[in-house]
């Protein structure tokens, strides 16, 4: 039955997946196990995305399905359970840029892969990244940007993190439509990722989980 | 270096007619006398002349002066679309919520940016389909700009039944709270817009007398992007593709005549027969090939074919990676579409589209912003060499044309390289292979 849910969810079959969850809940099954399966399905979704079988529509839809199942299961949980996160990531679109699509997908993929994400939103001043990094103790900062003006904003954000004395405490990854290795060098970031799964893999690498 | 009055132009002079011919020679896949260079630079020209983006949007005269000064110096074959520097005061007076811009709610040197929201909700497809005009006026406009908020209270527009209810209509308008103020604001907006338009019209005339045609009459959108970006937003649309796909297709279908009409309208207003079509959500990273074939391509193809039939040159702006989509573009007629490319495998492009479409692009923004003049020159040389066997090349930057952040010396080097290497002489095949490998990044 676990495999049924994992597969139907990974195949994005909404009605079937919801039905299985209903059945399993009414059979009195441990809600946490259902959430585990849902997470397992999201891992498959992530793999299919990385393999070029799934694209943004599938990711967005899988996120919606996960949310729906969470909403069904959460009331049955005895108490909020704290799964120990894989690691913490401070994430945001850099100053001057208000594009959130890429950043939101990265946040979602990090989240379903067990990372705790502090999403600062868009047009985020450099100082805010510093404040949140200090406050959360996150070892990873993710900078997103779609426009070419983000090159300088990223560079400046890395500089401000450096000036705050945090540079050797955090790994900085960048990403966005116009980001490549040249821009990574230009900004002084540690790594850049082509897509959301690349961000997950980088985060795992940084936290020694892979 | 920046554009200053009296600075010597790069390259050699051309007439207006020679530039038009050069451009269309490239589009129709014949070899022009020289490779044309034409860009959609939004804020580069103004920045190059020392204006901040905010100043460019708020001081129409300074913007126009900067445009001319920079064009004089750069000597490109077509002037970028002047109207892409929007009128900041107009946006401000209307309380536009669908954009953020420099000089208002973004930093002075930021690019203006569209705010992608749900301007149409998931349960409003039927209402839109029943009457797109009524929906736009009563729902769309009030959500996009605060000046239009009073419109939300209007009854469905067809209920104003011509002669029978014309008096009711008038009293309704005046009686609606906020309506008189809205009218006053709109009059103010109109006056400001007239001031902007007058400056822009003078600019077009001045550019023409300097020998520079304007690159495009304006723009239209393809139906899927109209829905996905302008109405429902990415997240909403992509959920709808799974949860109510038939409605998505119905709205896309319904929008096609508007996408064509918008293009025809701008060509009629300006007399310019070229229309830019920014393309956003059909690129390789955004959706699968299957979804592209199902949701995106049919309406785009209809738009392109309809414009070609009316003698308009569509300028689709293929943002992102279009390599997997080249096979669809091969269905288009030869030499009629000015395709602008961002990231595409040029070898595959040549194989699949070599006899169909010109290649317009693609000096990467990373190179223009962070590279050196030597590297830019090499890239352009390689690009020209690669297409030297067939012509059909127009040089520009990639995704947004020339980014405002590009180093002036890099843009000058790019321009110089076009004049230096663009005459299709003395480039051997061996060199072609070598250059393209370097240029391919």
Task: Provide structural commentary.
The complex is a heterodimer of chains A (210) and B (441). Chain A contains nine helices and five strands. Chain A is an alpha/beta fold. In chain A, 51% of the residues are buried. The model of chain A has no long low-confidence stretch (mean pLDDT 92). Chain B contains 19 helices and eight strands. In chain B, helix 10 crosses helix 11 and helix 12 runs parallel beside helix 13. At the A-B interface, helix 4, helix 7 and helix 8 of A face helix 11 and helix 16 of B.
Task: Provide a compact summary of the structure.
The complex is a heterodimer of chains A (about 210) and B (about 450). Chain A is of the alpha/beta class and about 210 residues long.
Measure the end-to-end span of chain A: 29 Å
Largest sheet of chain A: 5 strands, parallel
- Provide the spatial order of strands within the biggest beta sheet of chain A: 2-1-3-4-5
**Mass-distribution shape of chain A:** elongated
- Would you count the extended β strands of chain A for me? 5
Q: Could you describe the largest sheet of chain B, including whether it forms a barrel?
A: 4 strands, parallel
Helix content of chain B: 40-55%
* Radius of gyration of CA atoms of chain A, rounded to a whole number: 18 Å
- Note the beta-strand portion of chain B: 5-15%
Q: Would you identify the regions of chain A where 5 or more consecutive residues have pLDDT less than 50?
A: none
Query: What order do the SSEs of chain B take from the amino end to the carboxyl end, as H and E?
Result: HHHHHEEHHHHEHHHEHEHEHEHHEHH
Give the SSE order of chain A as H and E letters. HHHHEHEHEHEHEH
Low-confidence stretches of chain B: 426-441
Going by helix content, strand content and strand pairing, the class of chain B is alpha/beta
Quaternary structure: heterodimer
Overall mean confidence score, pLDDT of chain B: 92
Number of helices of chain B: 19
Quote the beta fraction of chain A.
Answer: 5-15%
